Structures
1.
Amino acid sequence: MLHNLSIGELGRALRAGKTSSVEITRHFLSRIERLNPALNALITVTAEQALAAAAAADGRRAAGEQGPLLGIPLIHKDIFCTDGVRTSCGSRMLDNFIAPYDATVVTRLKEAGTVMLAKANMDEFAMGSSNETSFYGPVKNPWDTRKVPGGSSGGSAAAAAARMAAFTTGTDTGGSIRQPAALTGVTGVKPTYGRVSRYGMIAFASSLDQAGVLARSAEDAAIVLAVMAGFDPKDSTSIDTPVPDYSAALEEPLAGLKIGLLREFFDGLEARNAALIHDALKVYRSLGAQTVEVSLPHLPLSVPTYYVVAPAECSSNLSRFDGVRFGHRCENPKDLLDLYKRSRGEGFGAEVKRRIMTGTYVLSAGYFDAYYLKAQKVRRLITDDFRAAFAQVDLLIGPTTPTPAFDIGAKVDDPITMYLNDIYTIGANLAGLPGLSLPCGLVEGLPMGLQLIGPHFSESRLLNAAHRYQTATEWHMQAPRGYDQ
Amino acid sequence: MSDWEVVIGLEIHAQLATRSKIFSGSATAYGAPPNSQANLVDLAYPGVLPVLNAEAVRMAVKFGLSIGAEVARRSVFARKNYFYPDLPKGYQISQYELPVVKQGSLAIMLDDGAVKTIGITRAHLEEDAGKSLHEGLGAASGIDLNRAGTPLLEIVSEPDMRSAKEAVAYMKKIHTLVRYLEICDGNMQEGSFRCDANVSVRPRGREKFGTRAEIKNLNSFRFVEKAIQHEVARQIDVLESGGTVVQETRLYDSDKDETRPMRSKEEANDYRYFPDPDLLPVEIDEAFIDAVRATLPELPDEKAARFAREFGLSPYDAGVLSASRELGAYFESVVAELGAPHAKLAANWVMGELSSALNRDNVEIGDSRVPPVQLSGLLARIVDRTISGKIAKEVFETMWSEGKTADAIIEASGLRQITDSSAIEGVIDAVMAANPKQLADYRSGKDKLFGFFVGQVMKATEGKANPAQLNELLKVKLGAGT
């Protein structure tokens, strides 16, 4: 069962000549063909290019190359520009957009020899927490197809959980990797802001967006992140600091590790969900870590702060979609204004429009100080709270989401309730911190996520802590019923 | 004197002479086929990001240092949001609250020779927009994004100017300065140097400014002067007939010589400025500033002062000769050959014959058909009295048209000046003998006839008699009979 193998195991099989990239690729492509119709996790399947890339990877291996991702199949979130392949960002606006270049993340993974199988479904322009805002329809959660997989990297999460690829890429602006990872039972890493290049990743909120990985274990995620991460001169906000050997640090002991339990994350959390987190803390204590309770008093302000900052940036970032140079253009515009209005009116969905309008409002003369400027001040306070907490503890821990996956359609008409789904994840984005979600149990048959947040550039520590937990437990080995077959 | 006082401030846009654009690697050369210098960043493709061109920052700092301004240790790029087809991102990246250059000043010389200091509020970096093309495309419009992303330095003055002439003097001074600094080619036809003028009037003696109108996109010194003059007259008309000036943006129509309001749609914008999250704040340290300072050339005012001091030139002449680095260099080369004592002669010739020839044939001084060493060769023949100044002008024309040296022309055409007193005396004698009536009249008191004799001798010698010697000898000879 190739699809149940870890990246390390696939690599060993490839090195031993027991299988080939072409064989692995064929295997995953046939799973995609069988499973995707029920899940709608993918927007575009690139079977032909995948087989060519797999053959090329096998050729590279035959020539003596060895890299850990050589010949390994992946699925990219459809937010990453992929040269010659439609890059829709989940929007009608870009339904016809064939990207003319590769995002830096895509280039790095391509150079490492990965094989792209498909582009994953997502909330439109990454705006959503349930993958219901996609122009291509909602993604179903493989654990229960009546449930959402979370969002915005819902397709990436569902595809990883359904074992359609060895791993998938995602982006996280307010929780868009960690929340769907939690709701689909996979391990998702949102790195430090600036750790991974944003070049070629279609912008939602530039000061918050960060690319990351969804995989079946921290061990796999470590291998992928080591390739994705690193300075990129094309992204002025990427940071030029060395990328540590994440895999080498996985086994480090946790003795003496100080873990802070985020008090604010337990306010209003259901008892059985809280119980899973407390079980996880017991595991950590048994591994030698100390746990203490810490408080981040401004953290409850993160949702309103986020819903000022992110829409403000998105309202400006999405101005380039004007029907002039690429993307959707309305039929027979009668003048310039008509071209703008109808192209954008037709091209964007309701949630995107809501955020553009909100963002335009908070940046407008007379409202700027009260909203945008104030939000930036609160953002600073939240960042300071985290800094103070990390003076006391090495990592923070809490749930990734308040509840497991909810029903498709349940919150779609209630944006505020929907936005509150990201209450535990947004803080890390506002402060630019790395966060990781890993499966920590099931509630009524649905996975729940445990979230770890660390100081800037502590990915190595986060992956190490997650891996040690996954060595001691088996939650990450659980597959949705039937998907390990 | 008018009862109204004019108040003018200028916003000058100088296109920085970087090889590539301010946020992308595309070339900035003028006149390339449409969209041949627009890459994915310039086209604002999904996912692309801006990367600041350090050269543009260096140039802005150079400018700041040259006007004694404060160079901000930290400046921030913001987004100015509006929709227009020549603005691919839907926002222009510009410095808003925190510009790179703050509070400098520049001295200008007024017509009466007085010096006035004009305050410069700020200078900030921003990107230019593309161009909409409407000709030859039928009902459609085209967009050329070659210019999109070209770096601009916007130089904002205080409202310190009190006449159109002052505004032009200031704009010319900035024009000189940016070319000295080699940060802008100053080409106004190509739009590399242009300005917006804020114009208002107020009753003389009142402190409060009147309501201003902004005249956009003036791309010649003449248009600046005429547009301001027109606008001042218009505002005074409005006020004197009991109306009020409306704060608005106006365009100058050079064909009709008038300003008129831009359509309100083009200006009714809330730009929703906010810091661009794709770019980090620009941090500038002392070492960077020192390194830039070390590259500063001698500035126009410094050069003018030196010309006046070293060569005894008038402030006016020193100002003219330092108006461009090339002109100053030409002048100095001539003086170096000729010797400092003859600097005034060199100055007169560079500002006179040479400048007229350059203007007439529309030649840049760097391409002058008479290079400095040749001009000094000509002037040396005046100094050693081989030829007169008048003959020298003819020789210069031949040098200009035929490219020969002064000496070759003088020899070939026999233009060598007659400085032999006995030879001149001989001609004088012959002229006196041939004109007895005029001689008698002169000797009976008609002094004005002196010129007649000078003319006759010059005619007889084909202008080659040394004028000073001729004057002296003629006085003696004509006076001898009385």
2.
Amino acid sequence: MIRWRNAALTASLLALGLSACATTSTPPKSATAAKPAEKVEAKPLPKGLDGQASTGFPSTYKPFPSRPTAFVGATVLTATGQQIEKGVVIASGGKIVAVGGPDTPIPADVVKVDATGKWITPGIIDVHSHLGVYPSPGVQARSDGNEATDPNTAQVWAEHSVWPQDPGFNRARAGGVTTLQILPGSANLFGGRSVTLKNVPSLTTQGMKFPDAPYGLKMACGENPKRVYGSKGRSPSTAMGNVYGYRKAWIEAADYARRWDDYRAKVQKGEKADAPKRDLQLETLAGVLKGDILVQNHCYRADEEATMIDIAKEFGYKVTAFHHAIESYKIAPLLAKEGVCSATWASWTGFKMESFDGIDANAALIWKAGACVVIHSDDPIITQRLNQEAAIAMTAGNKLGLGVTRAEAIKWITANSAKMIGIGDKTGSLEPGKAADIVVWSRDPFSVYAQAEKVYIDGALIYDRHDARFQPKSDFELGQPGQGAFN
Amino acid sequence: MIRSLLLASAACALALPAAAETVAIVNARIEPVSSAAIPAGTLVIKDGKIAAVGANVAVPAGARVVDAKGGVVTPGLVAAASNLGASEVSGVRETRDDGTGNALSAAFDIAYAINPASTFIPLARDGGITSSAVTPVLSGIGGGASEHADDGVVEEMTAGKVGSGDPPLFGGQAAFIRLKAGAPDIVEASKLAVAVSLGESGARAVGGSRGADLVLIRSALEDARAFAARRAAYEQGATRDFGLSRLDLQALVPVVQGKTPLLIRVSRAADIRQALKLAADEKIRVILEGVEEGWMVAPEIAKAGVPVIVDPQADLPESFEALGARLDNAARLHAAGVTVAINGARDFNNLRQERLNAGLAVANGLPYAAGLAAVTLVPARIWGQDGKIGSLDVGKVADVVVWNGDPLETTSWPLNVFVGGVEQPKDSRQTQLRDRYAKSDDSGYPPAYR
């Protein structure tokens, strides 16, 4: 996982720096003789006390069986800006190996899927999902999305709340969703770690975890934290209380990171050092400061987004994305300059004060300004039709004459989404070397009538609208009315 | 006083629509809904009504010609159930008038709460909607899907005195509005139905069980009958005690007389059967809303002649009463002969979703014509408005929409919207926000000056 890889990288850079230091300033022999530094055997900390050494909850995901396959004849939206007519997409070993026009050579030994008249896109990625943590049925006993007991719960991890049997995963898969970022809720300033999942049926969350995906930290601006805690007579109860809460936490996190850095530096030098006590809350926040964990920030209002960008600058981290960024159209040039993504719905508006200025053209205006835009769901219904959400957002732009093409708009639910959750090098577009996460649509996916017919993850068929063998059911659905069938 | 002044100035700020005129919409695919589509035709509006529809209709002298350029003309869409005009910002309690506290039950009348200056009325029109049933929710417990899990923070921000006691048994009376810009009163009809919930939310309203809910509903209807029969005695205090107040009993009298339907929100197949039995036993008219497991009892619903209002997106086992929810519920109900209306999203001010919901139902097996009827003529009929609106028939009121393509498709939008023959303004608060920020400006002044 990137987190561990980066940690290792940091450690090795640290080691390099130290050895360079050692070669340039070798202490004179006399000094060593005079007072040897307290050399101790660098003993590894007991298991669980060193965040960098922790094995965490590693992914056990294994791609399902697949065969080399060539999809022939479809209109292909690559999510790299191309729309290819009568295209060819070839997958092998779980990866895309070729994408091109009708004259793309097809090896003799691959399975050919005739997709004439169909459309092919990368698998849909929902960057804002609560599947598993707020599953169906929505009963109190399974309401595991918000650890609403303290405004800072950076220490909790969404993956420990995911119920892999949530029937919602099956519905989302039938809508072409192959990857999801599952987030904690927005009751808290710091909600906890997100987890990125492959949308495969699995008995365990580890079996769904997207290998090497970075973690995200859910943060929340605005009305929710101050309402939740203000109503309990606690801070924050105001927007300024929110900002104090963030800054206070980052100060503590920076201090914690420094203490560990000092400790590791001493250990590297072979000096005696006491390890700081591991703190899961500060460890996650420090992970953000180190750049290993991506900030996924629920933030509706343009002015609050600008404040959050300033806080990030004050403490030297980066906001990767604003979610529910309903007002990003107001400050799109700033977001483009700062390189912050905006994830938004297409047409929800006015359901709370901070969403009162929501407009359909939000995504298109952000796109026009050259900033990164993503269409997300935050909803187990919308996640099933992110293609239509993108279509509504695209249409709002075209109503304004912006000329948003399908080749561009498809990125809002695939390539940009992947980039936004740190897996843009692995999936999100149809390019050689990327994961063969593929959806075959019955027709133009931007049409209300489109159905995802076949869905592949890492080259393996995981859903087929016309083959009951590839329509998995959750354990919960067995023996229930409808037996888990929904279309 | 301040409120009325504000309303007046808001009305002035928006462009008022032109007066009724003679309009000929030409070069259009016309979907009258009541009859087969006309692939290329003309529709004439005169004196606020539809004067002519057909393939070979002449443009009257002096008529303003609207060239549809091959687009589609439909009746204005009808929202089958909404909170439009009765709720502005669902998370702001002060702006919610779509439910009552425990002071009233059946007598709550949403018609008094309609605000014609709601900023979401122009937005609904932008989705092709020209009229809407406005239906109350049970306070404190939702009624439609009135809770938003915004990142899982459940907002129980329904109207009325939430938390001030048990929610009432009945949600109150529904109204019907027409989305005429600038009109001082947009309420077309009121006291059209009395809303009630069966199943989980109905049970919650009465302390926890469906058993209590149905007993109390039946008892209330019995009381209303007795009240109607012995009105004079009641006024003299010479009847037994009734479970509901005088106002609530009065509101139920047209229900027990079969004049006004009960709008029953219900999900589970067994509860739908109870609703049908209630209607048969009490000889009352009912409309069913929700009916996620309706497909399982579709022939029974059809046999009872009961219309339904469905949300075709509902395919999750979201609760223990909707475990059988399916995307093809509307298609299966229709195939069994049930009259099906399709709803938009009650929440998020997203009635624009209604036409796309019809498209979704079509994508899942509902015939196209039934999909279009489900958002026009069927809801008009359910709410008793089909004598005036709901289809493009000569003599009907000219609530008409010209679309640049298939009205059920994501990539289409309304080009012209007529209500009562008057073309409606295209702008809304949302388009004004959009246009302010879509402009680039190097004046050195902030957007507030644009």
